[in-house]
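Work Package 4 report. The design task specified in the project plan requires that, given a folded chain encoded as structure tokens, an amino acid be chosen for each position. We show below one input record used in the internal validation round.
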């Protein structure tokens, strides 16, 4: 067994229903109903033209600065996959660029997450295929390995198993474990519905803001009586 340099089989994949329902929700609302305890880190920023991302994770763990296993992931990805690469967050060498973007688009990949750097930033910025990364550098990658595909990875403390639901929008990247998807998505939909009513109340000038003063009094804040 070549631990650290192997391609594993993906045993489970999040159901398409949860992918589609999650796609209609803000990542922030999904994060909120997960107790705000999961995040891919503030450094993962959208590098593409615009638009959100949702799909099952195809995980890659690679040595910083090397993208051999990322190329292999592009070859085995199926339509709708989100390729999620843990490259250690290193920004010395780009892990992904324009040529790989074209290959990803041809495979029907739903998105790319690079915990590391990209290059060809202008081409990626002009393209609608979602790409999230931690930075940009012109220095290219090596292609020597090692690495793993479809193994567990962690980005910014957020654990991701291959097949988990991975989401992204302007606020960042989030993963939801397969077994948590129903509870999380249903709770996020309820939160979104509540926020829609709240926005209507704000626009109508009828929103109850008494909770602010109530919280301040509960926490012992000294303030004048109104």
């Amino acid at each position: 067994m070549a631990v650290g340099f192997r391609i594993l089989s993906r045993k489970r994949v999040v159901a398409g229903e949860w992918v589609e329902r999650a796609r209609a929700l803000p990542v922030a609302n999904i994060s909120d109903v997960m107790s705000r305890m999961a995040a891919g880190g503030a450094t993962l920023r959208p590098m593409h033209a615009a638009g959100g991302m949702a799909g099952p994770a195809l995980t890659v763990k690679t040595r910083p600065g090397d993208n051999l296993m990322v190329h292999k992931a592009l070859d085995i990805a199926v339509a709708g996959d989100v390729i999620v690469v843990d490259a250690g967050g290193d920004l010395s060498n780009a892990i992904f660029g324009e040529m790989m973007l074209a290959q990803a688009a041809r495979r029907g990949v739903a998105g790319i997450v690079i915990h590391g750097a990209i290059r060809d930033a202008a081409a990626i910025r002009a393209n609608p295929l979602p790409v999230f990364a931690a930075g940009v550098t012109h220095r290219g990658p090596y292609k020597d390995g090692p690495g793993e595909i479809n193994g567990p990875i962690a980005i910014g403390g957020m654990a991701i198993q291959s097949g988990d639901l991975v989401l992204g929008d302007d606020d960042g990247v989030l993963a939801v474990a397969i077994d948590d998807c129903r509870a999380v998505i249903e709770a996020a939909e309820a939160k979104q519905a509540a926020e829609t009513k709240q926005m209507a109340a704000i626009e109508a000038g009828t929103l109850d803001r008494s909770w602010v003063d109530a919280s301040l009094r509960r926490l012992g804040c000294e303030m004048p009586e109104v």
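The longest helix spans residues 181-204. Validation will be extended to a larger panel in the next phase.
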